[in-house]
Specification:
alpha/beta, 12 helices, 10 strands, 18% strand
């Protein structure tokens, strides 16, 4: 990719010799929590980026050697990037950690990188090029290569989505699937210009925020090695470590709580932007309703009397994005609850 590394304009140059627009700047956020054995590799892959930028390595008060390993990884570095290593004052959790970092980062574009993932050298440059090409773009992610604990590729080019994702796609999709947060880059204003993130998982909230106020895209090429292990936030949230009702219930309680956080975030963001076109506001509230309804259906299946399943199921049948799930869940009315999660 032949993109100059020093001056990528945020807008096309004007006619008649007008001064070029200010170049977009980039901050890579290497975000770590209890990753003492992988953070050094993650940091080295950030330092290997072809685009000179600010790099902030931030440990969320792990207390297990992660911060020391990160500092050792940058010791003696003299390359083109501006690098700092820091720790939060206390453990914040991922969403609050991102809000905290957005306040201190200098970049217009924030490129997320987990302290256990490996960024490929042109990742930041490729993501920035997408923001330059699409001026209304608010968030961009990509496909990834799944890698194991030793960095070996398990599966290539996975977790991708269609290149352009809008509110209607998220409504029709029904699976409540969004860009993988680990692959994401966002405009800093997506965090600083909207209400604080409240919840555990950032992927859905940031993807939907982007579609609400601008564009959301997923690049088809893998730009990252996404490390799979038992401590992945995604694997923890959608825990399938075994069969049986206990794990099924635990997984569903985590997921329904996340979906209610997402619904509340969409409502807060829609209310915070008085300048939104009415159609975007309407779609945002429809998306919030879909997430809240999905949470209600999950809650009904794990704890409500069967007669109380009918209301959420009927509302799901009426929602285009949830009809398939509602149909599948209707069959569970015939099964003992102890059978759930066995398959």
């Amino acid at each position: 990719m032949n993109i100059p590394r020093h001056a990528i304009p945020s807008d096309p140059p004007g006619d008649g010799g007008a001064a070029p627009a200010r170049a977009l700047s980039v901050t890579i956020l290497v975000i770590a929590y209890r990753m003492p054995h992988t953070v050094a590799d993650a940091v080295r892959s950030a330092l290997a980026q072809t685009l000179p930028c600010e790099i902030i390595v931030s440990d969320d008060s792990s207390g297990d050697g992660t911060l020391a390993a990160a500092r050792e990884a940058v010791r003696g570095y003299e390359g083109p990037h501006r690098v700092s290593v820091r720790s939060t004052s206390h453990n914040l959790g991922l969403c609050a950690h991102l809000d905290d970092l957005a306040k201190i980062a200098s970049g217009d574009i924030l490129v997320f990188q987990s302290g256990d993932d490996i960024a490929y050298p042109h990742r930041a440059e490729t993501l920035l090029a997408s923001f330059v090409a699409h001026q209304s773009l608010q968030a961009a992610g990509s496909a990834v290569d799944d890698i194991d604990a030793n960095g070996n590729v398990i599966e290539k080019d996975v977790r991708g989505l269609p290149e352009r994702l809008d509110q209607r796609w998220f409504l029709r999709r029904g699976k409540l699937q969004t860009i993988l947060g680990a692959s994401m880059a966002v405009r800093r204003d997506l965090l600083t210009g909207l209400p604080p993130l409240q919840g555990v998982v950032e992927d859905n909230m940031l993807s939907l925020r982007a579609a609400l106020i601008g564009e959301c895209r997923c690049l088809p090429q893998a730009l990252l090695g996404y490390r799979r292990h038992g401590s992945n936030l995604n694997d923890w949230m959608f825990d399938r470590s075994g069969n049986g009702f206990e794990i099924y219930e635990r997984r569903n309680r985590r997921v329904l709580s996340m979906y209610r956080d997402v619904a509340a975030d969409q409502e807060r963001c829609a209310a915070a932007r008085a300048d939104l076109p009415e159609e975007r506001r309407r779609l945002a509230l429809s998306i919030a309703d879909m997430y809240r309804l999905e949470a209600d259906m999950r809650e009904a299946l794990i704890e409500k009397p069967r007669a109380q399943w009918l209301g959420p199921l009927w509302r799901g049948f009426q929602h285009p994005g949830l009809r398939r799930k509602s149909f599948e869940r209707a069959f569970k009315l015939l099964l003992p609850r102890s059978w759930f999660g066995r398959a």
